[in-house]
Fold Glucosamine-6-phosphate deaminase.
Amino acid sequence: MKIIIAEHYDELCKLSAVIIKEQIQAKKDAVLGLPTGSTPVGLYKQLISYYQAGEIDFSKVTTFNLDEYAGLSPSHPQSYNHFMHEQLFRHINMQSSHIHIPQGNNPQLEAECKVYEELIRQAGGIDVQILGIGANGHIGFNEPGSDFEDRTRVVKLSESTIQANARFFGGDPVLVPRLAVSMGIKTIMEFSKHIVLLASGEEKADAIQKMAEGPVTADVPASILQQHNHVTIIADQKAAQKLREASYS
Ligand code: F6R
């Protein structure tokens, strides 16, 4: 696990954008795994500026998002589908048929999960999987206690995640869906060739310390990344402040 400590959020965004740019330059039809949330917003802005400067061509790129709220239509303003189009896809030259986000309002949600898993397999896996991390150590919507063998499935959001995500629903936790579709931990671990986890801010400091230096445990789902052979953690100084090893760059 390589840990890079960025001086601040902007540097974190640039470092992660360069990883994606180099991946697409090396392989035009790269497959990317993408998160939503606050952390990747600056990364997506940076990718848009690379595209506008002619440094990245997204026309052959394929993407798979990590998760989506259950019950929200793709056009719902708080859906992850809507978020991704606003923050990234509508600004770049992705082909819409190459964009994959679980359809949260599919009445056959279990079947949706199986098909999603199969689509990732057929794409040949994910070249670069970007992850955020919850303050409780979750990745995707794999909350503490999730099984490391889990595949894409319907999940129940933890109370702390509902509270954390209420900010996207006008601050009202009652409006946050209780269920979501999420790639499972096994999906992420098995299909991702390179995992890049981003963390910004002191509210992530405990999770980053436990993930990188604590035991591998279902109580901290991100800790499983210690067992993946190609992981890069990019944390800003606030998120990295509780790491105890001195040797991180
Ligand atoms: C979102 C996702 C979540 C977030 C995590 C951090 O697609 O999978 O695991 O990455 O909750 O969210 P932010 O970046 O908002 O702190």
